[in-house]
Amino acid sequence: MDDDFEFPAANNDAEMPMDDDDNMDLPVGNSILKVGEEKDIGNGLKKKLLKEGDGWEKPSSGDEVEVHYVGTLLDGTQFDSSRDRGTPFKFKLGQGQVIKGWDEGIKTMKKRERAVFTIPPELAYGESGSPPTIPSNATLQFEVELLSWISVKDICKDGGIFKKILTEGEGWQNPKDLDEVHVKYEARLEDGTLVSKSDGVEFTVEDGYFCPALSKAVKTMKKGEKVFLTVKPQYGFGEKGRGATGDECDVPPNATLHINLELVSWKTVSEITSDKKVLKKILKEGEGYEKPNDGAIVQVKLIGKLHDGTLFVKKGYDEEPPYEFKVDEEQVIDGLDRAVKTMKKGEIALVTVQPEYAFGPSESAQEQAVVPGNSTVYYEVEMVSFVKEKESWDMSTQEKIEAAGKKKDEGNALFKAGKYQRASKRYDKAVKLIEYDSSFSEDEKQQAKVLKVACNLNNAACKLKLKDYKEAVKLCTKVLEIESQNVKALYRRAQAYIHLVDLDLAELDIKKALEIDPDNRDVKLEYKVLKEKVKEYNRKDAQFYGNIFAKMLGQPKSAGAAAKHEAVPMTIDSKA
């Protein structure tokens, strides 16, 4: 055959580029095929494995693959061979540059794998064939060795940025929006003109740098990865282009850019609070995987500064021992308390804390300076060591009961101090310690029952204060599952139902509570509250229906009309 033999796309409608995910649709992979075995891998395409490949990765649509092959007809007639030419064949997988049988077959291969593909006419050259060497409706066989591939990804799925991996990175993690990345890059126009270059620049991913493509690309990269980007105008400088700046050339309107990009490293920035008002940037990774829990004793080195660099606290330096405190005991500001719970031993991090989680609106005199009101503060923290509070699975049954009682007492003190959120957490922890009591003795089960009732009732009171009425209902219901005649649980659940405007359910709970304890003053007062709510509901209901009927009759609304057409009012037992 001629040395310049090419594989034209088959002339049928099925010759379309394939998505990356198509790799997952094949029913047969090398994990199933054994050497010497042949199977149909879909659409009549057969694969016989001659030699196992390396690793587990396979090329995807868009990747630039390099193969050696020998093509024959079923009678053994050879019509082409890259091995005879001594030059591997390269093409983009899944882009219609070769017959469909190749696109479908080669994406099932691993690096250095050898296989024979038997390709039916509809996945090859069909009725037209490829004269004079390949007749009409010919079934073909190709012995293929996948030498290597360069991954090319359409990272935005719109053809705007194509990424070709030149050097694989380390690990599996990628930078996120808040992370601070360190990159090297070189950007050129299609004619090779250099427009921008840096041997090292740092930026936050979501803020970006140079052009939008850089932040899009780094989010798909691993540490140490080097890539070549083809960037269309929408991710470069668009229709307007960019004027020359300093030593950098201008970028013409609608210019495509070619960018060599290396992700040198990055510093992970995490959201400690969901509102992003406490952020942690890791400066040095810690050891292992354990982190402090609530109640842990931590030892840290600490430097606190204001936005202008003013130092207001420094602990654990200059031969001073590390600063020690107990987590979740309000011994440090809330933002710092939360941040240290995410740190590993030996980790060094920069923690940014906005006023809501720092010193609030009032100024605060600290060790070395006064922190003005509404200040965002910055801490460099090194986690020297920590001792975790004992976990429930490490406790004996009696230790669990004692720890639950202690948490309940802490919750009570916090509730009295008006710290309802923190009190609620204590009650939650107390109940979790004794939640599973199958291994408890009968006496321990009784102690656990009393604690569960008390903690859930007190927690319900916290939820009422915090206006989390649905959770208050759940907690009271848990108590009533244990003690169906518990008046406090009925009373507090009725309060929650009233706030949720479930007035019928509130009435049922109040009536039951009064049946159990007819002289209970608090329940009687709540009954009066309920009656007022019912009256208010009936007034609003009457007005609503009155307005509707007035509109239907074409009459102006009036109190009389409302009274005439009001809905049947909700009633409530007046006995109290």
UniProtKB/TrEMBL annotation:
SUPFAM superfamilies: FKBP-like, TPR-like. It catalyses: [protein]-peptidylproline (omega=180) = [protein]-peptidylproline (omega=0). Its EC number is 5.2.1.8. GO terms for molecular function: calmodulin binding; peptidyl-prolyl cis-trans isomerase activity. Belongs to the FKBP-type PPIase family. It comes from Abeliophyllum distichum. Gene3D superfamilies: 3.10.50.40, Tetratricopeptide repeat domain (1.25.40.10). Residues 1-29 are annotated as: Disordered. Keywords: Calmodulin-binding, Isomerase, Repeat, Rotamase, TPR repeat. Pfam families: FKBP_C, TPR_19. TPR repeats lie at residues 487-520. InterPro entries: FKBP4/5/8-like, PPIase_dom_sf, PPIase_FKBP_dom, TPR-like_helical_dom_sf, TPR_rpt. GO terms for biological process: cellular heat acclimation. Residues 62-150, 178-267, 295-387 form the PPIase FKBP-type domain. This is peptidylprolyl isomerase.
